[in-house]
Give the backbone structure.
Amino acid sequence: MEYQFSKLIQGIQPSAADRMLEQMNNPQLLSLAGGNPSPETFPIDEIRRASGLLLETDPIHVLQYSVTEGYAPLRKAAWEYFNSRGQHFQSEDELIITSGSQQVPDLAAKCFLEYGDIVIVEDPSYYLTLDTFRSHGVCLVGIRMEEDGMDIQELENAIHRYQPKMLYTIPNFHNPTGITTSSEKRKKIYDICTRNNVLILEDNPYGDIYFGDYPLPLIKSFDTEGSVILAQSLSKIIAPGLRVSTCIANKKIIQKLVLAKRCADVHTSTWGQYICEQILVNIDMDEHINNICAYYKEKCNIMRNGIEQNFPDDIKLIYPKGGMFMWVTLPERFSMPDLVEKALRQNVAVVPGNIFFVNQNAPCQSIRMNYSTPSAEDISNAIFTIGKILSKD
Amino acid sequence: MEYQFSKLIQGIQPSAADRMLEQMNNPQLLSLAGGNPSPETFPIDEIRRASGLLLETDPIHVLQYSVTEGYAPLRKAAWEYFNSRGQHFQSEDELIITSGSQQVPDLAAKCFLEYGDIVIVEDPSYYLTLDTFRSHGVCLVGIRMEEDGMDIQELENAIHRYQPKMLYTIPNFHNPTGITTSSEKRKKIYDICTRNNVLILEDNPYGDIYFGDYPLPLIKSFDTEGSVILAQSLSKIIAPGLRVSTCIANKKIIQKLVLAKRCADVHTSTWGQYICEQILVNIDMDEHINNICAYYKEKCNIMRNGIEQNFPDDIKLIYPKGGMFMWVTLPERFSMPDLVEKALRQNVAVVPGNIFFVNQNAPCQSIRMNYSTPSAEDISNAIFTIGKILSKD
């Protein structure tokens, strides 16, 4: 049989993500290419205890079909947790549970976007979400990132020129750049988009991983008009294998997202939802978050110190105030693809920056390095190896 | 903000499914309207034991991100389990894990269907999968069901007239009718579709719940051409809250489904996959399946006997040879919607048959009744109540 694949799926290339996953199978590799939270931050004892208790006292509910919008006590616990961390939503907002935060752009695209519609994204941005949008046949328009977030003039121009339906942003500790969008820009993005009837998809997987001041208010916090869909994963503060995330939006939007989710996977893993509820309710989340932040801050500092000691002075480095990633841009005398390949030959993996751009084929001098997954020692050794390669060039 | 929802999501109506879920919240209700497997069939002790051991010995892998195609040992265990139950696949076939079998039509539609394409479905068919197809903007063409499966002449005519891209079928113990497609028709469906380049999506959630002879070979078993995508849920033989299903197809198809799944939810719950692997490997599945079959057979007989004793002689009943549903068609002197409403007023819920048809608004005399979820006593009482309503009309 000759397969006729859809235009949508033909727009998705396996290459970049697959190559990275293949690398992961080399046990000798020092990988700065991943993006996994460190298992040191998983509340393993509490999950074990909660799971034992749930499967002892309420196994039928934990193993049975559940409702599409999510397990009601978890929806309540997550709402209260976000409130306790200074996030305040609108009275018209509702929270549902999704199967990882990757499901949020997939459902939002299904509910709002037609083939050929325009979506504005930060350029660079998280490549897998870009692929999710591409898989709906929408056109991506990238906005250049400055050290405090999107270039607002370019954003305004793009909105007037392309009349997009949606904007996708990661304002806290952006993946891949680590950039924090400033308060002023958050407000401007909200105002410009709302004025022009552009929905905002705000992705906040890293907001609870901060190294200094408490994170800035989310764009969602300004959202009196109901124009912001907020995806807040629990993967980085509980555990990603549970595949439990939250989505908060105006209830008219939520109704449609629930219809789309029912068609996609009926509901999210029941056990995973019960576990997250137990964790949010039973453990001291402030203390847990403080521990996570301290743990990642130390690793971030190790990477930063390694870069300062081993990399040429004229590289450009954005110091992340949180999250999991460091974005290094090489001066023109280096070839980024050469560096990535030489490093890999010495068993060090980093992600070539081009895969995060709307145009993956444009020249790119940047690499993304992750400090959440590797050990402190591996970070030091990997940075030292990359530094040696750069010093020889 | 004025929301402009997509044409796709506007095609999905919440009504039918939502009304049923609302009914479930009435504690006095005797519901034959559900479709949940009975918790009596869940291997609860084994799941509890496996979970305890996994979270004790390997918590990091169980809680960490995993790969999109699924946990390799589960993929192997599921493949071997299906083989042990007499299913044999092609050497070009591969098996991946999906988040429930509902995800399979969603991913298959993404990979193969364009807006406006035609999909052939049994008429009636499982309403949620019809909604999944509708959410991709495809047009459904329904084929009348006979007591041994689709009307083959109508199928041939429809294929020549509409040139569909895909056909969706539930050959074993069909939802909602309980019909088993005969061997002859399975072969004919395969031949006609393959000759006309129509992909077959074969859904087999109920194949392991049979009351007499071993189930007939799947359409997939003829699939030398690679034209069949098989969805085989583990929800009905392990537990549905895990949200773990399998999908088996030619590896060229699987590659694309994996790309689509990565964009949809990255991967299926890691814990759920580890649990399923442990269950498939460690328990005597033949004995487990025999117990499940015996348990549902008894309930099916209770419903059947109740119908024979309490319903008018001229109703039409298809005797299911497996699965979870019984489909009753009333003579013309009754109004099906009236019956459903009267029953509901007496706290008995059944599903009005019209929601399973491509055209939900056409006149319909059938109801679907489920015997897997309610207790034996509730089945008897509910059937008695419906019988009394029918005898008064």
Notes: The first helix of chain A runs from residue 7 to 10. Residues 32 and 314 of chain A are 21 Å apart (CA to CA).
